[in-house]
Model the fold of this input.
Amino acid sequence: MERSFAIGMLVLCGAALLAAPAGSGGIAPPPPDGVLMLGVARHGPADGAVTSEWAVVADPRTGVTRRRRLAGGTLCHGPLLAVGHGVIFGGHRGRRAVARWLPLGLDGPARMIAEADTFTSSRAPGRLWLGRWRGRGRAARLALHQVDLRGRVSVRARILHASWSSLHADLGRFFVITRGRRLTVWDHFSDTRRLAIRDGSFAAAGGTRLAWCSGVCRRLHVWSPSGARVLEPPAGIRPLGPLAAFSPDGLRLATGVGIRGRQRLAVIELRTGRWTIVPGGELDGYRSIAWSPSSNWIYFTAGDRRLLAFRHGARRAVPLPIDPGGTVMSIAG
Done:
């Protein structure tokens, strides 16, 4: 583990920029909030191959970071999850796939939670869903267990579905599952499919809502138990594929778009369906997006090692004083 001191010289000017008044009344807007959890890969200078993988916890206000090296191949299992006061990530114990946990301080040994072929965070605080495949072919079932961070089971559920699917989200009584380009919303109370999309790609989930797109992703769809709607972009704007994040307050959806040959961050007001292109919101690198807990700020990648932040209603996006130490593969708040 190492603490980044090299960015200390950037803290004062970076913090001043992020907290600068928006230009009305001289009142400083609220500073960035929350803690960022980054999945970071370092590459060799010659062939660009991944040489190491890291979990990085960073303060978006000061840029102070903590780092922990992960086993090779960890980020192939998916992005790091923020559950409770810890970091959840996948790995192996021998030949068995497992979910592991680290505290936010990234110190001490990583603790195995339980065996898991697929997993996602639960809507219940401090818990997650772990899935294990049982059986083969059409008879395969995904056995799900909601557990705490010590692996103690609180809820059990079973889903009938083809093998090698991935569990993406917990929507309360519904689970979002994908297998290739097939997307399914499964009601585990009645053990039935509520929604089945043959050519669908998962984009985001928040609360009881799911965002997805189909085909070449010309528009975004939003589904919830109360109904479905289509978010049609304005002329000249096209979504950058299944890339989105719901704000914690449920009012907005951030997504990547292509406009005039450039990749930008856009924010959709879910009540009105209005799309806004973020000023200065260049979206690049692995194109990762995360909201702050207050829903006031969006954090996103503007290149392999560059992170930007945008406060709703501000003049433009601003750089975060964070040196990730490698290529940012994923962001969680």
Observations:
- The helical segments are 8-18.
